Fold these 2 entries.
Entry 1:
Amino acid sequence: MRNSPMFNVLFMLVITAVFTGILSGIYEITKPTIELNEELSVKKAHLYAFNIDLPEKASAEDIERIYDDKIDVEKIGDEDVYVAKGAGNQADAYGFTFAGGALWGEIEGILVLTPDLKKVVGIDFTEQNETPGLGGRIGEPEFKEQFRDVELNSDGSPLIYSSSTRPGQVDAITGATLTSNSVLDILNNKIEKIRISLGGD
Amino acid sequence: MNSEIKAITEKDLWTENPVIRQILGICSALAVTNLMSNTLIMGLGVTFTTAFSSMTVSALRHVIPTRIRMMVQTLIIASYVIIVDIVLKAYMPEVSANLGPYVGLIITNCIIMGRCEAYGQSNPPGLAFFDGLMSGLGYTMVLMFISVIRELMGFGTLFGIPILGEWWTRWTIMVMPASAFFVLATIIWVVQARQSKESV
């Protein structure tokens, strides 16, 4: 009986149903927590890129409150643009989400520019799976801080890495050339696009 | 029972260590060992999965049809790996982000299925759990050893805490997966030399 094909098929069906059932249960229970975590990490990344300081040990509620207070979402064309409102309800900075392929997979993040689109306020990544310790270091403050208050070039590539032959605004990561170059390409393409769709003003 | 537990401990941690003697779980030994904190979580994830998978296989060993046992084992292992992934995402989101795709890849670790086949299949659940636990710890032990060397030489830090200071020139090769080959091979060489002396 135990080795009859019918029994094998039935056994596999039943045991798969049991295990998938258990997993769906656990998934359902933890789903709200996971979604909240993801939302929070995106909001934290946005606040970082906008250079808005969070108090040390900010709770989830603090982050939500500060985020709702400081950042609005506006639709420009078919794209969501994040706007930080300063004094007198004037826009202080604009945040644009970017995405593109790098060495291992998609990199997603936010690029924040000043209203005249000539200066970077900050960048942060919300999704990246680069090599831990090498390309993965794009997520570390040492790399991201370099982009603060960088003036964009008005002709040629807006952002350039420093090299031995010419000065640039930021340094690439040693040992992670492909990831570094992908990040810069994604950012430069995004800036180009923003300039085309919003430029001139 | 007690002598069995002692025998399992000695075998899984030393004489038949899964990484050093059986050369299993090598892919993750290369991939995650450049930072100690990632290595530790990976080791704990594998230990948890091996222990519970082996126990579950053992508990069901009289019911699982022999012909489809590998499919069933894969299903059981995959379920526990997904549990680890979900728990990390929900309660340790930063660790989960650091480990990225590696958590899902626990399922490809040969040690887990190896223990289910070699031990869980033919022994009672309690012992199978213990055997899985010890195999996982044997794996973790070797990986931690590799990661101490790699993180110290590659970053000058241990668990992210600076140890060597500014004068240390970081060895980029130690951060790359290839260096784990050299470190692991050296460890295997030293351990095997010792073990063959012991057995004479």
Entry 2:
Amino acid sequence: MAKTFTIGLAQMAPRLGDVEANLQRHLELVREARGLGIDLLCFPELSMTGYTLRDLVPHVAVRPSPEHPAWKPLLDASKEMSLLVGFVEEDARHRFYISQAFLDGGQTIHVHRKTYLPTYGLFEEGRYLCAGEGFQAFDTRFGRVGVAICEDAWHLSTPYLLWLDGADYLLFCSSSPAYGVGPDQEGATGNAATVQQFTKTYARLLTSFAFHTNRVGVEEGISFWGGSLGVAPSGPVLAQGPFFEEALVPMEVDPGLLRTARQRLPLLRDEKSLLVFHELSRIVSHGDVPRTTEDATTDEPG
Amino acid sequence: MDIEARLSLDVPLTRRLLVNTIRAELGRFGFKKAVLGLSGGLDSSLAAYLAAEALGPENVRAVLMPYSTSAPDSTRDAMDVIQRLGLSHATIEITGMVDAYFAYFPDIGQRRQGNVMARARMIILYDQSEEWGGLVIGTSNKTELLLGYGTLFGDMASAVNPLGDLYKTQVRQMARAVGVPEQIIAKPPSADLWPGQTDEGEMGLTYAEVDKVLFLLVDERRTRDEVAEMGFSPKFVSNVWRMVQKSQYKRLPPVIAKVSDRTVGWEFRMPRDWGT
């Protein structure tokens, strides 16, 4: 039987554009997490930089390698616990990404680049950043993990793909701004309720663990709502962080729950991924689905 | 849900967001104190309650800036708020300042006078900001911002505006919930720039009506035709939209003539809270 472990969600408020200050805050939280016996410490999206960066993007970008002065201390810290860190990544050809790195045993195990960059409403990511090109699950000492960053997780296909790729642990990391204060919000804004709901729903429908680490604090008049959440495969909430306040939210994870959940609800066993593949191929390659109204009318006789 | 219900706020949540934002945005620039112009009206009273909750009443300086024709009950209501909250306060009359200027222009008219008074108050608030070591809290609500019912670089000037995303109707709902005295909530909104002036009289509309139309057009992204079909006069809807359009310049920084590769506001886009 796989051993239980402790995951911690670091619901922090990064300092905007100050990598050094945020690095120190990460190391403080690692020390705090040590006292709680945490094995895997998750930070929010862009935890090393803050969110509303705009033209600060190139000023705060990091290459996730041991040579980088901000990366080395994180790698060292990952010798005592695994870390999931949010940062702006610069690639060798000087493209900038919103990335989340999984560090363990002094190594960078995996980097996920945010693939869906929201560029609407108050979001302007597409203006400043390059989109990642996909989702890939990866193996860790806890099991197989899938990472998604904020908007990534709003696209249904993201957790689905990670699940098919073998992820039993979905790690969502966000800088989710608070908006929508209509009547009766139960402690957080309208969009928060949606994120909480889909995190729970994904856990249940994918019979997997789902964790959401969201930041707090205020930037440019925008508040971030926190409310970080861990959900077990059959649905129950493991722990939830407070809204709007900094917190380190620990919870014990029993991998045995995957086994019991998938006996009760064998959705993974019965999933027809080949069918999905065929149907998607047909749909995407045009097949008999009309792409525009004009296409549809050309099928009409006469 | 009908429109009144959709316009209503989750008060505890909104209060938390506004109070947090005041504290956080001042704090990140190293300030623990604030200054605001308190007229005795609804908006500035609510702003005073929120600032006092965020920073502690002893850290909020309310400045009364009456003119010789200001309504006496404005001062009375402002003093009531100050006493209830225990705010630091100062009274600085603008009469001497602005009358000296008005003397150059015997035909100046109410509108120009009103704008000069609003800008004189801005001068005082920003000087008090320096003297008191606190940032200026804004009191312009969303209805005023969208309709352009405010004086550019006058009452629209501030460092942090906690009310700018609340319609007047919502300001009233919040004010009631945080305990602003009922006589302030009940009196007709007025800039008090001349005797008998009321916002609704001057603009020729009611906040109750215009807030619904703005909410549908702006927040819910409805077309003007759709709003008219919901029972609002098409002429009124068009007028409201025109007011929003004509005042767009007031909601933006001044136009810069672009000549270089990297112009402030276009290619140079640093966050305001840079490095804080």
